[in-house]
Amino acid sequence: MKTKKFLIGFLLAFSAGIIITACYKNKTDYNNGTNSYTVKMQNSAFSPATLTVTLNSTVTWMNNDNMVHTVTASDGSFDSGDIAVGASYTRTFSTAGTVNYSDTHNSSMTGVIVISGSSGGGGGY
Length: 125
Prior knowledge:
Blueprint: H1 2-28, E1 36-42, E2 45-47, E3 50-54, E4 57-63, E5 72-73, E6 88-93, E7 97-103, E8 106-116
């Protein structure tokens, strides 16, 4: 009887640990605390589709899909070129503003980066 109670308690604690870890990991997927963010390309979508960052933040788009994608700014300020499956593209944003972007291979795959803060002069997206 004591062994059964112990096992049930252990399984409950173990399950709670897994749930807490999963929630924490999900929360930190986009920002690891160093002004570095990750946007995943998966199921023909950017996730998150809208991301707000501060000046001088770095965003990495990771292609977790089964096809080639691009990250191309609507204003022409950057274009990743083809990003192969499993590969990534990284960009640092040094000017405040909003940048709309899309995948040139899939026009319905769109995203937005909002860069908050004052621009420190010079530089660009």
